[in-house]
Design a protein that fits this description.
Blueprint: E1 32-35, H1 41-50, E2 53-56, H2 64-71, E3 85-91, E4 94-95, E5 110-111, E6 130-131, E7 155-156, E8 161-163, H3 169-177, H4 180-183, H5 188-192, E9 204-208, H6 226-239, E10 244-248, E11 271-275, H7 290-305, E12 312-318, H8 326-339, E13 344-347, H9 358-364, E14 373-374, E15 391-397, E16 400-405, E17 408-409, E18 416-423, E19 433-435, E20 459-463, E21 472-479, E22 494-496, E23 525-527, E24 536-543, E25 547-558, E26 566-571, E27 580-581, E28 588-589, E29 591-594, E30 597-600, E31 617-619, E32 624-632, E33 648-655, E34 660-661, E35 667-670, E36 680-684, E37 687-691, E38 697-701, E39 709-710, E40 718-721, E41 728-732
Parallel strand pairs: 1-2, 2-3, 3-9, 9-10, 10-11, 11-12, 12-13
Antiparallel strand pairs: 4-8, 5-6, 7-8, 14-17, 15-16, 15-23, 16-20, 18-19, 18-21, 21-22, 23-24, 24-25, 25-32, 26-29, 26-33, 27-28, 29-30, 31-32, 33-34, 33-35, 36-37, 37-40, 38-39, 38-41
Amino acid sequence: MWLMAVMILFRLNCAQAGVNGALPQFNTTQPYLIYYGNWNSGMVNYARTNFALVILHPASNITSNEIATIKRGKDNIAGTADDVKVLAYLSIGEDDRAGAPFVGDGLGPRVDPRAVDTDPLSSITNALGLPSAGGTNYASYYLNSKSNQTGKPDEDAGFGSYYVNAGAPAWWQVLQTISRATNGQAGLQEILGTNYGNSFNCDGVFLDTVDTAAPDAWGTPYEWTSPGMQGLIERIHTNYPSNLLMANRGLFYFDPNLKTYAYNIRPYVDMVMFESYYSDSSTNDISPSFPDNKYDFAPKLNAEAGRPDGFNIFVVDYDHTPPQTPAVVNQDYVECMAIQGWPLYRTNPDLDEALNTNSAAWLATNVDAQPPVWDSTAATGPTPPAPRVGVQEVVATNGTATVYWDVAHDQTGPVRYNIYYSPGGTVNFATATEISQVVPAIPANYNYPTGTGPGIYPYCYTVTGLQSNATYAFAVHAQDSCRPPNEDTNTVSITVVPGTTPLSTYKSITVDGSFVDWAGVSWAYQGTPDGNPVNYLQVQFANDTNYLYGHVKLASPYAIFSDYYSHLFFDTDMNVETGYPVAGALFGSEMMIESGYGYDQRNGGFNAGSVSGLGWAIAPTLSTNEFEFRVSLAALYPDNTRVFGINALRLLLQDDRGPEVAVATGIEYELSPPPLGPLDISQSNSMVNLTWPGGGTLQSAASPAGGWTNVVNAVSPYSLTVGSGQQFFRLTR
């Protein structure tokens, strides 16, 4: 069938160095063609000499010899650098065969097996679904809406095809064996093989109708088939490992705000087509979905494309009758190619318009001389988010620092990222250590259900081999794939001090709002502004014998911990799997402070009773940018057990409205014992008196060279009678 020209599934409401997984030969410098009409020899040669990639429809009159000719490229010699990759169309989410729907095994149509739509996809144990209440006289891969169980397969009326459960076992056999001669459509064996049907021997498959598995809120009630759709694409990838796969849309697989992100198809596809990005087949010059496409979906799609197992992105947009103005058409090239770096092909909604090289003509007068532009994955709708430039967060531990950043885009992709770091408080780019073209990891909280938003970033990389207790400044630059490359020159940097894990500082703090007591205490966290109502920029912790202290700086004024939005969580057993699971973080809390009160969360609930003896104090108590607070180390749970032990713990500063967290896994801190000494010795006649503050064990020896033994039951002050000979004393832990 044709591409989904009228996209009813649009959301109208609205650590090592290397490169990403994109195919380097496919970017805006290499035009591509998508054409579904019939062919002649002149068109075959035009495609061979003007494009790096051709997508065609095997239901047309194309022959295997003509495909072989296109594949030979400009020099007309197979197996050389200018060979053209040819993909053929295959509908995997709708049955577009002549004569459909078919009786098949007589077990369909099938409906969503979940009790309610809000049940997680992971709860589905019957991937085939339940039989339609209206009857089952058709193949088991056909679908019925749960709200309209007619017993007849649901039809996509715009195209005359029938929605299918891509994960149904019987559908795999259909996709393998259909042929143009028998079914009017070609299957995998005919498209990719050399001894089945027309033996097209294409380089890959263009997978259409992936959007059948889109979220129910997008217009079709088949989101329950999204795990099966992923499974089918993985199966094609596994069974045809040397062939290329391009998915048409499927944007819901690449958005961590959606439950379908858990079934991401990124590892199994080489390319993604963003159909109707700027100009769709409606009568609107510009698609009503364009703001959502640009600000919500595009950054997240670019983030997935830039991963080690990422993909290339292409766009097909549509010409109109009467034609759109030249300004509108030119802006389409600007939006797709100049801004996003996605090759664009414009054609009519039937995809059989005369072949054109308009993309190459546009590119000839729009040479890329600019560095990448920073974007933001934080948006969840059509409102433009503020770009998040360069490094956004750095979390330091013992000898390492994990750097977080957002996505950038450029006319000439793929975009790569370089990390710079220098000792001291600023990055000196002339002398800084550079880690070029890092392969970023996926931060643990860039996932469903935490989603995207302030304080959550799609990329991170851990720098190792740092000196503990030394100060380092970090920066991230984005670089395009031009030759030579263009690199941005942002000067955003974040300074951290990698230290021994966990942090531990013994110091008594007077909670009076002056903050002078915090001099010399290392920052446990430093971040950047992200637009949240509460945005933690810097955090310190310290303790003495009686209290745990905190010092927080905010990006903008707010009276933190004075309402039910901002919280301080404590993971006292250092186990993320126990206690209350904090939204927007990877953290299990045993105690929470809200509005100055402590609550027991050991059983996994939000409030299992009040904590007594909290000793809470905060200053100042008004709305401002900087606070210090304390919590009593003698605090008790309702069953009178102590909240704090002597071991390390994690602390999480959080605000519900972002969700905003300082560090998603919490900041590790170890309660510090009092410092040793000084040990004072005085003599009065025959008595020697020893005094010392704080803790420690008193030891004695006849020589400072060794032989130290503990003085039994010695506490300060300690007295003993002077004996003969020398005697030495010391304090130790």
